[in-house]
């Protein structure tokens, strides 16, 4: 959702970007091996997927 007028859309986009980056950081902090996939629709991130590998020695 974007708020139009006087830079409102930019503020909402920046807040969404901040939230996405924070979620990615939390995922990375908890993972040793694996991948994080961003699912994008209409130019917006709509889903994050975490695929973690457990390596046995």
List strands and helices in order, with pairings.
Layout: H1 8-29, E1 33-41, E2 44-53
Antiparallel strand pairs: 1-2
Can you describe this structure?
With 57 residues, this protein is of the alpha+beta class. The chain has one domain. The protein has one helix and two strands. The chain has a two-stranded antiparallel ribbon. The radius of gyration is 15 Å and the shape is elongated. 0% of the residues are buried. The mean pLDDT is 83.
Keywords:
two-stranded antiparallel ribbon, 1 helix, elongated
Concise description?
With 57 residues, the protein is α+β, with helices and mostly antiparallel strands.
| Strand order, sheet with most strands | 1-2
Task: Give the topology string: H per helix, E per strand.
Answer: HEE
Q: Name the assembly state.
A: single chain
**What is the radius of gyration computed over CA atoms, rounded to a whole number of angstroms?**
15 Å
* Tally of discrete structural domains: 1
Number of helices: 1
Q: Describe the main β-sheet briefly.
A: 2 strands, antiparallel
Shape descriptor reads: elongated
What's the mean pLDDT score?
83
Instruction: Return the structural class.
Output: alpha+beta
Low-confidence spans: none
- C-alpha termini separation: 47 Å
Strand-residue fraction?
25-35%
Total beta strands = 2
- Percent helix range: 25-40%
């Amino acid at each position: 959702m974007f708020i139009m007028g006087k830079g409102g859309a930019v503020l909402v986009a920046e807040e969404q970007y901040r939230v996405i980056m924070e979620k990615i950081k939390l995922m990375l902090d908890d993972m040793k091996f694996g991948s994080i996939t961003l699912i994008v629709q209409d130019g917006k991130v709509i889903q994050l997927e975490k695929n973690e590998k457990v390596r046995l020695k």
